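Bump. Still looking for tRNA/rRNA methyltransferase (SpoU) structure tokens.
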Amino acid sequence: MKRRKLKLEELNRISVDEFREARKIPLVVVLDNVRSRHNIGSIFRTCDAFRVEEILLCGITATPPNAEIHKTALGAEDAVRWQYFEDTLEGVKALKTSGYTVFSIEQAENSVSLGKIELDSEKKYAVILGHEVHGVQQSVIDASDGCIEIPQYGTKHSLNVSVAAGIVIWDFFQQLRK
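Sorry for the wait, here they are.
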């Protein structure tokens, strides 16, 4: 059976304005000192694909407009709502005050495997992804409601932050879309 690749105009994608009005999953992605603008752009694009509510860009994390972010975001930075916080803890505090359950994505004592997390589509969640080398700051982990760990079975102990974001966002999307 032949399978013809679809043309862009056949994909029926929504416009930026339609995206802004569309129903989102109750998830905020927090970037804690992510240094690579390409990773930031890639995470914007993934958040667009799965209708994430918002991204909090914190610390040294670059913000749009930025040519390097745009290179991988491909315009998703114009669709997905974002805010900047100089201090990640300020962002976490704002989320918790607004009723979000906040998880750090990190290998930590008592972390829960991503596959074992059971989410309630009536609740609001935030996930924090950290610096490419140092991960999520300990003070931010301490302020979180818990840690989620992505199981890994190879020789390496970590994933690229944009890859980790994609895995976590997809899992949350699967549980929260209703």
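The chain has a mean pLDDT of 97.

Edit: fixed formatting.
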